[in-house]
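Researcher: Go.
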Amino acid sequence: MRPHLTFSRTIIFLCLPLALSACVARAPQLSNATAPTKAPTPVPYDETVADVQRMLIKLGANLDVDGRTGPKTRRAIGNFQRNLGQPPSGEITEWLITNLNHHVSIQADIQASGDSAEDPGQPTHWAFAATPNRMAHGAAVGSSELWATELAKRACRAQRDSDPENAAHYPCAYTRKWAKTEQACVSFLWTNGSSPKFYGIAYGSDKTLRAKESMQKAINACGNPALCGSFINTEPKNSHTYCTEDFFP
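Model: Structure:
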């Protein structure tokens, strides 16, 4: 083999890696990063939605006033619709705005007058209120769920304040409410004023069966056979059962 050919091949082999490295260095670098995604278009602020949110908050809903119909706002609207016997669509309609305004007005009258306010309408709803430990409770009827709830709270406070040693420091804020057409019974149980009350709620077409079922649910909710087993044949002073017909004969 000729010496100059061997020398040439040696030079080629030595320079080839350097040439390849230079090509790689000059080649455009490919990125593994994905293309940036387009940010979703923010939902615009809607003053009508904000007004609905403000009214729902006045009626007890836990919301932020952001002018957008998010899941929490739809849920609050649905709860309001359900309480008035409407399908809980969660949609803002003229019916919703009209009834929200009406209920906010009632709420304002109640708050402004305190316990001296009187319900001006015919009873169409009923409610009961209780302290967190069920040591005091009351039931009442009113011309709306707001009035029924308010009057039930007043009855509960009167019951609570008659026994300040046991329950005066508890608010009568635990409430349940129904429309006049709902056939329901609710039962309370307690033992000598020394243990929490237990309650059950039953719906049905027969008052006797509903009352019995509600009482049994209250017994079952107690969870302590030694404490609550005697309630099956309890004395009236240790239990109360309220039914729709008791308020709307």
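Model: The chain has two domains: 47-116, 125-247.
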